[in-house]
Amino acid sequence: MPKNAAYSSFLLGALAFSAMATAQTPISRDGRVEKIGPPRSGLNVQDAKFIKDAAAGNTFEVRSSQLALKRGRSPIVKKFALRMIADHGSAFEELKLLAKRKGRPVSKTLPPKLQVTIDRLSRLQGSSFDAAYEKAQKQAHAETAQKMKREIQFGHDSDVKGYAINTLPAVQMHAKMLATRKGMPGPRAAHSM
Q: Greater confidence, 36 or 179?
């Protein structure tokens, strides 16, 4: 290879590398590198999404169950709601501490889909509420269990995965309680739940 051709190849490579670096790093007019946003927390997209989803799920469980205490009719529904408030309230507090350590504050703001369900439940009363609450709980627990399994399989942060591993059995137990009513007082056929 002639000397000029090697030098030209070197310059082209250096120029391409410089262009890539410049495209990824914004430079101000005076030549300084500009920072964009806060530093990363170290969580990958999967872990960060899981924390956000888990916070929303716990918040939904607590809020919908608070409605059940006010608007439900069945003692079974109300007993289940008390359990959900205790378990998911505690799970939210644990998640909040974990998220704080990871630099990811959590919110109690619900995503639109869950807020629509809360709004719908808040317009119901008595046995109509009980049936809608049971349906919402079954769906929410099934979705939460799937998200936890996904975090366990694909998450990278060991603390976030640990939260999913430790919390999944309670979510599965809640789903089983809904399906079988095991451990829930009251007649099975007389009340909807």
A: 179
Superfamily (CATH H level) for 46-180: Ferritin, core subunit, four-helix bundle (1.20.1260.10)
Residue 175 CB-density burial (10 A; 0-12 exposed, 13-18 middle, 19+ buried): middle
Instruction: State pLDDT tens for residues 78-114.
Output: 999 999 999 999 999 999 999 999 999 899 999 999 9
Domain ranges of the chain: 1-37, 46-180
Please state the pTM of the whole predicted model.
0.73
d(CA 97, CA 99): 5
Which residues, 6 or more positions from 73, have their beta carbon under 8 angstroms from its beta carbon? 125, 126, 127, 129, 130, 191
Contact yes or no for 191/76 (Cβ under 8 A): yes
